[in-house]
Amino acid sequence: MATGHSTPHPAKPRIAKTMGKARIFSEAMPFIKAYRGQTVVIKYGGSAMVDDSLRSTFADDVAMLHYVGIRPVIVHGGGPQISIAMGQRGIEPQWHEGLRITDADTIRVVQSTLIGEINPDIVRLVNSHGAVATGVNGLDANLFVARPKDTRLGFVGEVAEVNVAIVEGLQGQGYVPVVAPLARGEDGGVYNLNADTAAGALAAALGAGKLIYLTDVEGLYRDLGDKDSLIARITVPELHELLDTGSVSAGMLPKLDSCMRAIEQGVARAHILDGRLQHALLLEIFTPEGIGTMMSMEPVP
After folding, report:
1. What is the C-alpha separation between 165 and 206, in angstroms, rounded?
2. Which of 283, 280, 275, 282 is nearest to 51 (CA)?
3. Closest C-alpha among 290, 291, 278 to residue 218
4. Domain limits at 42?
5. Between helices 253-264 and 195-206, what is the axis angle to 10°?
6. In what order do the strands lie in the sheet containing 269-274?
7. Residue 301 domain-assigned (yes or no)
8. Residue 283, SS3?
9. For residues 21-40, average pLDDT
10. DSSP single-letter state for residue 16
11. Residue 26 falls within a domain, yes or no?
12. Rounded CA gap, 240 and 256, in Å?
């Protein structure tokens, strides 16, 4: 007796899977329209920079953003690679309050590692996925100008000025800028910048629609010891209140400070995402649920 069901066909699972993929693209359409033409500044660091599979999917995500008309700008770190390079040269890394003490020998290692190794490697990786990335560093066209952050830190800078002409010019030509966080000092020297701080300052200067940090945590927690206290959304005033409680980890402070400064200077939204998650960028930008922690000046519906 007929049951009303057709005979199983080997092509049906494939068709169902294909329809699922099509539905994903359809659901992404409102977000593509919303952010098309807007700049998204991405701080690239943590596991996403060293795990081969994560490196590949990050590059794929950036290419996707580029080809749907969103304008990604990558600002990268390189702390672990710099420490390795210092060790190879017999220089012992030293730290003060979580920041690398950067003397004359160290800044030369920092400069050569960021510009000579890490930056071109990211450019190569993104371009292998079809996007047209190009490397730039904060010394180029005085993109970043810095003053000394603390005399005890040596050549560690605090952003004093951002000149975005070179980045905007590259964007206008259809390139994806990949930025190494170095700066020309007001005294003419070369300074190392905290990549989190550099990304926030650049996002503000570019009038970015989004500032995104890829990290090795799921996002911001209200209680560090409680994994269920992940904060999905928070406003800048609420964030100030949270910081006053002293419950935020020291490693998260530069990111949050940069996020707040960027938002206060006009960046609409800032995000802290788990870069250990495959396609974290696409999940945040193209899904209504998003991931990680989103920060804004006012509550977002």
Report:
1. 9
2. 275
3. 291
4. 35-296
5. 10
6. 133-137, 176-180, 71-76, 39-44, 210-215, 269-274, 293-296, 233-235
7. no
8. helix
9. 77
10. H
11. no
12. 10
- Structural domains of the chain, count: 1
Contacts of 195 (CB under 8 A, 6+ apart): 43, 45, 75, 76, 77, 78, 181
**pLDDT number for residue 23:** 60
Edge-first strand listing for the sheet containing 190-192: 157-162, 144-148, 182-185, 190-192
Residue 28 in domain: no
Q: What is the pTM of this model?
A: 0.88
DSSP state of 80: H
List, in order, residues 6 or more apart from 142 with CB less than 8 Å away: 161, 163, 184
Structure tokens at 129: 């996925």
Is residue 8 scored above 70 in pLDDT? no
Q: Residues 124-182: pLDDT tens digits?
A: 999 998 778 999 999 999 999 999 999 999 999 999 999 999 999 999 999 999 999 99
Q: What is the pLDDT of residue 2?
A: 46
CATH number for the domain including 217? 3.40.1160.10
3-state secondary structure of 133: strand
Tokens of 137: 């560093």
* Listed residue (177, 183, 39, 175) closest to 110, CA to CA: 183
Phi, psi (5° rounding) for residue 43? Answer: -85, 120
> Is there a domain that residue 43 lies in?
yes
pLDDT, tens digit, 9 for 90 and up, residues 81-107: 999 999 999 999 888 877 788 999 999
Kindly report the average pLDDT of the chain as a whole number. 87
> Which H or E element spans position 42?
strand 39-44
